[in-house]
Design a protein that fits this description.
Distance between the termini: 25 Å
CATH class: Alpha Beta
CATH architecture: 2-Layer Sandwich
Number of strands: 4
Helix content: 10-25%
Low-confidence stretches: none
Shape: globular
Mean pLDDT: 96
Structural class: alpha+beta
Number of helices: 3
Number of domains: 1
Largest sheet: 2 strands, antiparallel
Order of helices and strands: EHEEEHH
CATH topology: Alpha-Beta Plaits
Length: 107
């Protein structure tokens, strides 16, 4: 089992989760993070660290976010690892509650 980053991360990209990850399974894209399912050890320490509640266990993934399981696996193969905390986007708080952000995903 793995953890999955969902659309709440898009256009926010807070990196608090990266700081606590013991195996460096996060990958960084232009405007969101994903979790590499081959690296994730299912420790769950990242879940409470996410200020936008974007991280779920695979089994608790909301139905409307199910496409993010495959998307995390796909993008984790393309994007570089992120191991250092960075600031979120300046307008991240404005995007925090926005729904339907998949169309804004930059690959």
């Amino acid at each position: 089992m793995t953890h999955v980053v969902t659309e709440n991360c898009i256009k926010c990209k807070y990196t608090d989760c990266v700081d606590v990850c013991p195996v460096d399974c996060f990958k960084e894209g232009p405007n969101m993070l994903v979790i590499d399912p081959d690296e994730c050890i299912d420790c769950a320490v990242c879940v409470p660290e996410c200020p936008v509640n974007a991280i779920y266990t695979e089994e608790e993934l909301p139905q409307d976010q199910s496409q993010f399981l495959a998307l995390n696996a796909e993008l984790a193969k393309k994007w570089p690892a992120i191991t250092d905390v960075k600031g979120g986007f300046a307008d991240a708080d404005e995007w925090k509650e926005v729904k339907g952000k998949l169309k804004y995903l930059e690959r």
